[in-house]
């Protein structure tokens, strides 16, 4: 069984987290059955960007990177406190350890910024939120990433980044394909209605 850690900082965007739970869940029940997702929060109770409350299965202090095969990280809003939790030292070290072990790291939108802050994107190709005068892309660039501004999903080695919520399913399916196979990912896409 391949285990995915869905890391949820306070203030995360619910729709960006839900694609991981759905794609990995569909694979567990309807695909090849080889994946499992565990929600891991920075707190015992989390508020999403627009006050949706979530109780994660575990908190970050209760898990180790060794338990997982991949890390999934949604973005969130500054106004909701996303960066306060996403930039915590324990969160950044957790990200670094996934990278040190060469495990897949998949982020959506500004979920790339904690990756950049952790230092793992230094000299690597990546992207993040692309609108509002590219403010977030410029921040990521200042963290040492080689930002590819017009590519919706960017993969560099074990790290997947994307530029806004519209890319969420593409990232989740890329993660599934990396954990299983192209054939299996396409089967789950078909079952979910993304392929005819």
Fold and architecture overview:
The chain has seven helices and eleven strands. The two termini are 28 Å apart. The strands form three sheets. A seven-stranded mixed beta sheet has the order 5-2-1-6-7-11-10, sandwiched between helices. The chain has a two-stranded antiparallel ribbon with strand order 3-4. A two-stranded parallel sheet has the order 8-9. The protein is 36% helix and 20% strand. By secondary structure, the protein is α/β, with parallel strands linked by helices. The radius of gyration is 15 Å and the shape is globular.
Q: Could you provide a short overview of the structure?
A:
36% of the residues lie in helices and 20% in strands. It is an alpha/beta fold.
Write the layout of secondary structure elements.
Elements: E1 2-8, H1 14-29, E2 35-41, E3 46-47, E4 53-54, E5 58-59, E6 70-73, H2 82-86, H3 89-100, E7 104-107, H4 112-118, E8 125-126, H5 135-142, E9 146-147, E10 153-156, E11 159-162, H6 168-179, H7 182-191
Parallel strand pairs: 1-2, 1-6, 2-5, 6-7, 7-11, 8-9
Antiparallel strand pairs: 3-4, 10-11
Helix pairs in contact: 1-6, 3-4, 4-5, 6-7
């Amino acid at each position: 069984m391949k285990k995915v850690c869905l890391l949820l900082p306070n203030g995360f965007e619910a729709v960006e987290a839900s694609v991981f739970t759905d794609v990995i869940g569909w694979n567990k029940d309807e695909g090849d059955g080889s994946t499992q997702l565990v929600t891991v929060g920075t707190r015992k109770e989390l508020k999403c960007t627009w006050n949706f409350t979530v109780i994660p299965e575990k908190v970050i202090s209760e898990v180790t990177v060794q338990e997982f095969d991949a890390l999934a990280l949604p973005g969130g809003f500054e106004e909701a406190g996303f960066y306060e939790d996403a930039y915590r030292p324990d969160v950044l070290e957790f990200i670094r350890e996934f990278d040190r072990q060469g495990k897949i790291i998949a982020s959506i939108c500004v979920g790339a910024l904690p990756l950049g802050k952790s230092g793992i994107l230094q000299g690597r190709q990546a992207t993040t939120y692309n609108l509002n005068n590219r403010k977030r892309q410029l921040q990521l660039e200042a963290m040492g990433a080689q930002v590819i501004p017009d590519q919706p999903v960017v993969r560099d080695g074990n790290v997947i980044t994307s530029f806004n919520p519209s890319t969420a399913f593409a990232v989740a399916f890329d993660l599934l394909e990396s954990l299983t196979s192209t054939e299996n990912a396409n089967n789950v896409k078909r079952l979910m209605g993304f392929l005819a």
